[in-house]
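Please fill in the sequence for the structure shown.

STRUCTURE ENCODING:
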């Protein structure tokens, strides 16, 4: 290994400044580099899921043909290959594969088999997610993950996919960001099934009279339903893991967790706050599933520091741009001592003015984690291309590739080439 010692002080991102011993080639041979997508956000033409239904009801923007990736996946993978990617994370659409309860569509399976093949032909490792937020209509209409038997239903779907596609892949993720799915669907109420929880105090109960009792009751009901959904999701993952392993014991089965990196200054109150938030948002779910995970996927978007808050700029999502916080997020997951893939980390940046910097800082954060012994196996930028950003429609642009939704023309953004250079140097950014 080529060692190059240099003491470096980082002026950028004050919070992450540190003097360090620079060791080149920290990224191991075979480290996976690439990007991620999700079926509903890019494929187009999916009409039998809860999001399409919500769009028909006017509650979320329509997705329509999205990036038409369902038909253009080969050309899109050609671009990913040209950009040096060695892996690609994608999801398969449950509503296509199981359009009616217990009935599986072999044509859909054949399509995803071709997608996997296309990745392999281009030298990219397929990292496949079974379920990324959207539910088949038959399932959502009968209660979705509120259903008592939802874990068994999900495990049956997982077993079918493992039987049909498992032999063709090495990495399988059961679900994407379960807490985000449950939190926005049952507490915030912005995503299907649009259930909302608002903290309603005794005040409101006493001064507002009988009829308004309905609102607090409904609200608390949403909270308890949220808890139920979270438990069902954890059980669904655990059951699915067991079923998949019976069929394909050698498959690496993971769960993708959205981790918010909570940090604090030395003030004990701030430390306590960071500890509580970390427990609630990160570990309460991880504790339920970690034994049934061969590895973890990390989706990183948020770093929150209590006390002496550093000043960050905001992305087009209005999120603080603190890419170095990925190091803190990796530390959170490393508690479970399982290999970690950065399964998503990225930026909405319509004029591509911050993306190259963001990716570079993010990769430095991963490198720092690797140097400290955290077993990170890959880095997948979100997203390969602009896509349907859920309740916000198509306005927010996360892509390495820009999409013109009228013509379906693809334009590679300059930052994608900066990422390509990083990949060519296997992660060395300076
Ligand atoms: C989700 C993606 C989403 C991205 C940006 C992640 O939480 O997995 O589907 O597009 O964040 O909001």
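FILLED IN BY: designer on duty
SEQUENCE:
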């Amino acid at each position: 290994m080529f060692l190059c010692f240099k003491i470096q002080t980082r002026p950028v991102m004050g919070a992450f400044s540190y003097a360090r011993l620079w060791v080149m080639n920290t990224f191991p041979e075979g480290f996976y580099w690439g990007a991620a997508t999700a079926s509903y956000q890019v494929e187009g033409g999916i009409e039998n899921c809860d999001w399409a239904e919500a769009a028909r009801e006017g509650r979320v923007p329509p997705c329509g043909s999205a990036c038409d990736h369902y038909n253009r996946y080969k050309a899109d993978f050609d671009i990913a290959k040209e950009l040096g990617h060695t892996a690609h994370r994608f999801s398969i659409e449950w509503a296509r594969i199981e359009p009616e309860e217990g009935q599986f569509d072999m044509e859909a399976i054949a399509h995803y088999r071709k997608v996997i093949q296309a990745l392999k032909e281009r030298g990219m490792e397929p990292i496949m997610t079974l379920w990324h937020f959207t539910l088949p209509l038959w399932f959502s209409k009968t209660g979705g993950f509120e259903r008592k038997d939802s874990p068994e239903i999900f495990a049956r779907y997982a077993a079918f996919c493992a039987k049909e596609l498992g032999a063709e892949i090495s990495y399988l993720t059961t679900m994407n960001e379960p807490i985000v799915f449950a939190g926005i669907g049952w507490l915030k109420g912005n995503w299907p099934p649009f259930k909302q929880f608002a903290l309603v105090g005794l005040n409101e109960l006493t001064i507002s009279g009988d009829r308004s009792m309905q609102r607090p009751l409904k609200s608390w009901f949403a909270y308890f339903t949220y808890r139920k959904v979270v438990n069902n999701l954890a059980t669904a993952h655990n059951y699915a893991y067991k079923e998949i392993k019976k069929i394909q014991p050698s498959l690496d089965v993971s769960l993708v967790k959205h981790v918010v990196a909570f940090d604090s200054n030395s003030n004990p109150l701030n430390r306590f706050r960071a500890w509580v938030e970390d427990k609630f948002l990160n570990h309460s779910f991880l504790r339920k599933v970690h034994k049934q995970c061969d590895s973890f996927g990390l989706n990183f978007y948020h770093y929150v520091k209590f006390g002496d808050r550093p000043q960050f700029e905001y992305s087009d999502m209005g999120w603080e741009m603190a890419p170095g916080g990925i190091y803190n997020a990796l530390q959170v997951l490393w508690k479970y001592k399982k290999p970690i893939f950065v399964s998503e980390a990225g930026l909405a940046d319509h004029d591509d003015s911050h993306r190259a910097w963001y990716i570079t800082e993010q990769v430095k954060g991963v490198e720092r984690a690797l140097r400290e012994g955290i077993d990170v196996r890959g880095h997948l930028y979100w997203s390969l291309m602009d896509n349907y950003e859920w309740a916000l429609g198509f306005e927010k642009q996360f892509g390495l590739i820009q999409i013109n939704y009228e013509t379906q023309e693809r334009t590679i953004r300059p930052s994608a080439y900066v990422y390509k250079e990083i990949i060519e140097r296997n992660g060395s950014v300076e």
